Amino acid sequence: MIRHLLVTGGCGFIGSNFVRFVLRERPRWRLTNIDDLTYSGNLANLADITDDPRYRFVKADINDRPTVDALVAECEAVVHFAAESHVDRSIQDARPFIVANVLGTQSLLDAVRGAGGRRFVHVSTDEVYGSLPLDRPELRFSEGTPLHANSPYSASKAASDLLVQSYHHTFGLDALITRCSNNFGPYQFPEKVIPLFITNLAEGHKVPLYGDGLNVRDWLHVEDHCEAILAVLEGGRAGEVYNIGGDNERNNLELTHAILDIMGLGHDMITPVADRPGHDRRYAIDASKIRHELGWTPSRSSWPRALADTVAWYLEHPHWWREIKSGEYRHYYARQYTER
Ligand code: NAD
Ligand code: DAU
């Protein structure tokens, strides 16, 4: 039985939504959040629950073993979000991805092992499966699809997945992996396409669309992802992988037009820019395993509605993203777009 949950990376986009979700859905649990507050970690993401007596924040790196050992000893289960998460940054510099995603996961696994075992949910990504062709719409990623990571980011996630599976196989760790498609919703760092485009447009800037704009992603609202992770934590089978997806494939041009239409802006606000190197063409998830085994299904309202709500959230929270965009972010943006 879980009384105290350890979450890593709870100050990022999905982690902060998950912390809030768990405190709401499991009122008797205590929750500790370890996060090193890298560029994408933001205390403002959890400002509304900081004073909740069930919640504790610890600022530390998941590679800091003494701290991690002490925190793991106190909990019954771990949900591991902490990672470097942006593909474009991994193309600029892969090193931080290896340190956080590979070594960081190993550090946690060793801590869990040292504590005699804990349920360990590793939050991974559909990107580990590589890319699907546009002309074979019937193809989707299942849990048995071979790993074929294409970016340094996805390679680091695939490496961490393999480590998790090896610790289950060799040491009998009660470890599980989730692989989810693209998330959207509140508190997403505005380097990712949806918040980047909404906030650029809100500032009167155009939006940089990579390549021909026909790359496809399978979009899922972050709350649906949180619900799926909780279902896996409570009901998943040790050693298993669970795919999570929205059955909601959109190409980037469609997505951009939808955002422009919601904001009442013309399609001339798109600037085509050079493609991302190695850009995966299409992701699509077959989530039938988690549906059948755990009864999970996305419950958020329709895509147009959820996207409109997301646009509204960013327009209603300009302080949140203006603060981010005025800092180190400006140098990243210049490197990524202006000098492209
Ligand atoms: P994010 O970049 O918004 O958040 C990452 C968090 O991890 C930040 O709070 C950061 O401070 C923290 N962190 C990074 N390195 C750390 C370290 N060494 N020690 C402690 N904390 C550290 O990322 P996100 O989009 O919320 O993604 C969270 C997880 O979900 C990642 O593992 C990612 O691979 C996975 N995922 C993301 C998506 C998506 O669409 N965003 C989809 C599927 C899976
Ligand atoms: O599929 C899950 C993954 O989704 C997660 O594992 C990653 O952490 C998350 O960042 C996300 O990866 P993507 O690379 O798909 O997301 P991103 O928002 O960077 O890009 C989405 C699509 O939009 C992709 O085809 C590239 C395109 N794009 C992105 C940016 C930032 C643009 O056309 N212009 C842009 O400026």
Bound molecules: nicotinamide-adenine-dinucleotide, 2'deoxy-thymidine-5'-diphospho-alpha-D-glucose
Question: How many domains?
Answer: 1
What would CATH call the class?
A: Alpha Beta
For CATH, the homologous superfamily is named as NAD(P)-binding Rossmann-like Domain
> Average pLDDT, to the nearest integer?
97
User: Outline, from the CA principal axes?
Assistant: globular
Beta-strand percent range: 15-25%
Which stretches are low in confidence, meaning pLDDT under 50 for 5 or more residues running?
Answer: none
**Strand order within the widest beta sheet:** 3-2-1-4-5-6-11
Rg over alpha carbons: 19 Å
Strand pairing plus helix content: what structural class?
A: alpha/beta
Binned, the helix content reads 40-55%
Order of helices and strands: EHEEHEHHEHEEHEEEHEEHEHHHH
| Number of discrete helical segments | 12
Write down the CATH topology. Rossmann fold
Number of strands: 13
CATH architecture: 3-Layer(aba) Sandwich
Report the major sheet. Answer: 7 strands, parallel
